[in-house]
Amino acid sequence: MSTGIRKARRSEWDEIFLMGYEAWGDGDTKELYLKECHESEKYQQGVWYVYESEGIAVSSLIVYQNLFNLPEGCFGVGSVATRDDQLRKGYASRLVKEISDNLGKSGAKGIYLFSDIDPEFYRRQGFESVSANQPYKDTTCMVLSFNNKSPLPLQIPQYF
Ligand SMILES: CC(C)(COP(=O)(O)OP(=O)(O)OC[C@H]1O[C@@H](n2cnc3c(N)ncnc32)[C@H](O)[C@@H]1OP(=O)(O)O)[C@@H](O)C(=O)NCCC(=O)NCCS
After folding, report:
1. From ligand 1's centre to the CA of 86, what distance in Å?
2. Which end of the chain is more exposed for a tag (fewer CB within 10 A), N or C?
3. Tens of pLDDT along 97-108?
């Protein structure tokens, strides 16, 4: 059974979306929430990845490029979530770490994300707050830069 990161299969989308149901379901029924996720233009524009442990997709996230006013050569990571029955086993951390390593190796200049949770979770993965002046309430824009010699613009992308 394999362990590690891979692109999600379309057949897994329901289980991936349900990983975020508690956080983003907004009181909707699961059926309505799934329908909205499937119809989401935002979700259709990204690429979903999962962390697989012993054959089970346990954690997921989406990667965006050329969207939301992201600086050129940079990626956006969003919707990081773990299955309810697999929380606190390090899976989301490993998924974020592996996607960051892969994007860094493939030449990305940086990765942006919006942390809706305590930013410390992402700081442990090397991300830092983009600036002291954060325009959005309840979320922190963070960035992981791969080239210290040429700093990224201090621009904050649109929330994604
Ligand atoms: C946040 C989340 C992805 C973490 O997944 P996970 O696989 O359990 O994460 P890991 O096992 O790698 O790391 C666990 C650590 O994450 C941190 N963490 C988890 N949930 C957190 C939260 N709501 N706020 C702040 N930190 C949190 C804690 O430091 C935790 O360590 P602890 O168990 O010692 O307290 C998961 O709780 C989840 O799916 N939440 C709902 C969706 C969500 O809010 N995603 C974040 C969007 S920015």
Report:
1. 11
2. N
3. 999 999 999 999
- In eight-state DSSP terms, residue 135 is -
Instruction: Report if residue 150 sits inside a domain.
Output: no
Distance CA 28, CA 122 (A): 28
- In whole angstroms, give the CA distance from residue 101 to residue 94: 10
- Ligand 1 atom closest to 87 (CA): 8
User: Quick one: pLDDT at residue 155?
Assistant: 82
Indicate the number of domains in the chain: 1
Percent of the chain at pLDDT exceeding 70: 100
pTM, rounded to two decimals: 0.95
Domain for residue 155, yes or no?
Answer: no
Confidence tier at 28 by pLDDT (50, 70, 90): very high
Pocket test for ligand 1, best of 61, 88, 93 (most atoms within 8 A of CB): 88
Q: How far, in Å, CA of 87 to CA of 16, rounded? A: 14
Examine residue 14 and state whether it is found in any structural domain, yes or no.
Answer: yes
**Domain of residue 55, CATH code:** 3.40.630.30
Q: Is residue 108 part of a domain?
A: yes
Give the nearest ligand 1 atom to 24 CA: 42
CA 55 / ligand 1 centre spacing (Å): 22
Ligand 1 centroid, distance to 88 Cα (angstroms): 7
